[in-house]
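BatD (Xanthomarina gelatinilytica), 591 aa
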Amino acid sequence: MKIIKHISLLLIVLSTSIATAQVTFEAKVSKKKLGINERLRVDFEMNKDGDNFNPPDFVGFNIVGGPNQAVSTSWMNGKRSYKKTYSYFLSPKQRGSFTIKQATIEIDGEIYKTTPQTIVVTAAVDRPNDDNNPETIASNNIHLVAEVSNGNPYLNEAITVVYKLYVSPDTGVSNWREIDNPRYNDFWSQNIDIKNLKVLNGTYKGEDYRYVVLRKTVLYPQKTGKLEIEPLSLDVTIEIPTNRRDIFGGRLMTQVHKTISAGSRTIQVKPLPVEGKPTDFTGAVGDFEFNVITSKSELNASESLQARVEVKGNGNLKLFELPKLSLPSSLEVYEPEHSENVVTNLNGMQGSISDSYTIVPQYKGKYPIPSISFSYFDVKTESYKRISSGEIVINVLDGPTNTTASDNNIASANNGKQPVVVNNQQFAFIKTSTELTSITPNNFFKSTGFWTGLLLPLLAIPLAIVIRKKKQERDADITGNKIRKADKLAKRYLGEAKKALGNKEAFYVALEKALHNYLKAKLHIETSEFTKEKIQDLLLTKQVDSQFVTSFIAILKNCELARYTPITHVEMQQDYDKAAKTISAIDKQIK
């Protein structure tokens, strides 16, 4: 019995060791010696599935493909054969001797390691031009090209770089990834999104090819002289036809991993000419229009107007400064609000930029806004151009008079002098004869008029005291005064909006102010606190129907967008009616 027991234990130990010995995990390389222009394939094979595969650091190599995973299972003579492989494709960085260190994996709770492999990298080797060699076929049938619109631009002139991948009709591409993105040093750059890659037909060096546009970039050079555009590099998986065929006669394909590059491009950037360069030139290059626009030309003191300095057109809109307004000191001017409405396409930046000034006159009079000019370099005519805005006069109709104002600040129409009107009856004869009539005596001291005049001042004293007290209370109510003023302004601006129907700019400025002042009166918040989200939350808190809240926010958005889009008179009337209806509805519901 003891012998049988020992034999059983021995068999168990032997079977366990045999099972353990059956697990293999090894590294295989396609070659031990290769040229720097060749590729190395490394396979990590195991005969049993495992977890937590950890590849080595491939020091001295770039990973150009992988890891690719392959699993195969077969049965022979009733026995199951299993193989799992992780494959990597490497390209050497430099010549020398390199060691591919151990990879590890966990199988059935045990850690297995591969044997390190030593690889020698030599100088580039000549590879025969074998038409059947997959790498040769790939090199001849796939090309990455960087097309530059202008190799000799001016400083700050837009150029475009379009990257195209050309593939011959008999070759396929199953996958690619960018391994080296270009950095555009000394350029302002903007990538243009490509939503869907489209396969197009074209020619490359006179031969028919298919191609896709992978990337479009707009560049504005910021330095003169020779500037380099770094190359874009891709790792591409290429499907190459072979001479082998399947059972149906179809040609079999083989995969080749290849690194292709568009190559670097050198751009020679010309400086802008010195001759004729304006003193106020700030670097604008392109084709532009320049305007200074005011929201109104006549107003009363303490009212506000908007003066917008605007440049629109095609050019480096984001890369120069707008000229500043020069205004009389009697006008209160706030810091300008800068806005940009610019899109970038293959023609460069297009759209408009502007500085919007809020101006509040304090005194009655006429205020000139002096003409300002904008200079830019036109690349089409290769010359500088200047556009002047022209003088604008702001007429303040009603308000206090500035007695200390200088001629620069207020230009009155006639200096306060009144013309003398000559009257032919200026000197009349004095009558010397008199005609006297008797007056009927009237006892005034006992009349109703006498007692009314006597008692009325006495009765007015307590009334005046009450009125004065009410006025003091009203003056002390700062919040109430702001609300009343805002309410009054809302009604006035709504009236101005109605008068300005047909004048898009003035209409939407007045309508927006009416909406804002209404909210100030109803929600008791300052203009500086306004955001659409806060307005929405506050109105909903005040138990206003969400339908009217949404309508109110939509009108505010219309006021912002309408200044940059074409609007008809009918649409303006609809916005006005909608605003009046919404304000009325909110006024009834707000609590």
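Residues 13-20, 405-429 have pLDDT under 50 and may be disordered. Residues 368 and 393 are 4 Å apart (CA to CA). ok done for today
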